[in-house]
Amino acid sequence: RCDDTERLLPFRNTYDMPRHVSLREDIHHSPSAAVALFTDPSHLTTIMVDAGSVDPQITVTQTHPNSWHVHVERTFEADWPAWISGLVGDGLRIREHRTWTLVDETLLTGTMDLAVIGQPVTMRGFVECVATPSGSSISFEADVRASIAFLGGKVEDLVCPYLQEGIAHEIAEFNNLD
């Protein structure tokens, strides 16, 4: 769900408020199995290429026995409206920093910071993967911000569904992996 209801609240400065992305999905993997997939460069590459990424570059660093940093740079080609193509061209080069911490066998937490290289567009979010009887439930909450005078809100409206669709696709693909 992409949501800008906060922009409509009275008595608030509504200029330059980010759009919100929220997603909740069930997967059939436990949190400990999920982190193994979320930090496996070959699985990530397969999923990102399948989602339309061109030449994803992925590095994973284990910073603690239960913590990982994942760095991704990839390009997305998209069929943008003419008004945005003049700003970004035919594709976007994305840089992502993801962190994962396996708190225990029932809880995996993470963060995702995404930036469009060369453009003032960012996404910052949090992920929680909680064990359920059938696997896990993943909750993702993020804010999308485009700091472009007069066009920021329109860019956020355009980018938000692409980001949400990409994250949902990535989660769905993890469900297909064993």
Describe it for me?
The chain is an alpha+beta fold and 178 residues long. The protein has four helices and eight strands; from the N terminus they run ββααββαββββα. The protein has helices at 31-38, 41-50, 82-88, 152-176; strands at 2-3, 19-27, 53-64, 67-77, 91-104, 107-116, 121-132, 135-146. Strands 1-2-8-7-6-5-4-3 form an eight-stranded antiparallel beta sheet, covered by helices on one side. The longest helix is centred in the C-terminal third of the chain and has 25 residues, at 152-176. Mean pLDDT is 83; it is low at 4-15.
Considering the chains and any ligands shown, give keywords for the structure:
alpha+beta, 178 residues, 4 helices
Distance between the termini: 28 Å
| C-alpha-based Rg, rounded | 17 Å
The largest sheet is: 8 strands, antiparallel
What overall geometry do the principal axes of the alpha carbons give?
globular
What structural class is derived from the secondary structure elements?
alpha+beta
Mean pLDDT: 83
From N to C, what is the helix and strand string?
A: EEHHEEHEEEEH
Biggest sheet, spatial arrangement of strands: 1-2-8-7-6-5-4-3
| Total beta strand runs | 8
Instruction: Give the fraction of residues assigned to helices.
Output: 25-40%
Unreliable parts? 4-15
Work out the helix count: 4
Strand fraction: over 45%
